[in-house]
Amino acid sequence: MKIKCLQSSPCRTFFLILTGSVLLNTGVLAQEHVMDSSMTKQAHVMLLPGDLKWGDGPPGLPPGAKAVVMAGDPSKPGLFTLRLKFPANFNIPAHWHPTDEHVTVISGTLWLGMGEKTDSKKVKSLIPGSYSLMPAKTGHYAMTKEETIVQIQGIGPFGITYFNPAEDPRNKK
Question: What is the pTM of this model?
């Protein structure tokens, strides 16, 4: 059965505009519903590099790392963004996280490898602007040759579990 209206140009144009509007509005409303039900309203944040107040990195990282939480709280449920600054020749042994980890390299070069054992011959260099996603519980390790800053985004609570407990800095006293 043919619909004659769709055969005329003005009618077809009206139908396409109407269909597009319905689909667009449905998508916007669905997105607003998701945002309303899963996110709390936060104040607008704008930070310049000079505004960042770097502190010691979290205890789950080897000594020497610096960190600044930009939004959210990695230890609590919800979205968070933080930056980590690693000195030259810094190594994070093979580990995994309970939630996805999104990493963007801001400066320097992050050498990233995948697996349950650290192997410096199997790393890939991530230069500024590079992005990596490690799905939850995916084994990986990282190292630097120069000072490197990365931005981490994820959903908390975030944590780190080392495959070899002897490499966990929290176990060293």
Answer: 0.76
Which two three-digit tokens encode residue 55?
Answer: 């502190």
66 with 16, same domain? no
Is there a single domain that holds both residue 18 and residue 96?
no
Task: Note the pLDDT tens digit of each residue in 26-40.
Answer: 343 333 333 333 455
The three-state (H, E, C) secondary structure of the chain, written as one string: CCCHHHHCHHHHHHHHHHHHHHHHHHHHHHHHHHHHHHCCCCCCCCCCHHHCCCEECCCCCCCCCEEEEEECCCCCCEEEEEEEEECCCCEEEEEECCCCEEEEEEECCEEEEECCCCCHHHCEEECCCCEEEECCCCCEEEEECCCEEEEEEEEECCCCEECCHHHCHHHCC
What's the confidence (pLDDT) of residue 43? 81
Q: Could you give the count of Cα atoms lying within 13 Å of 160 in the half-sphere of its Cβ? A: 22
User: What does the chain come to in residues?
Assistant: 173
Structural domain that includes position 83: 49-171
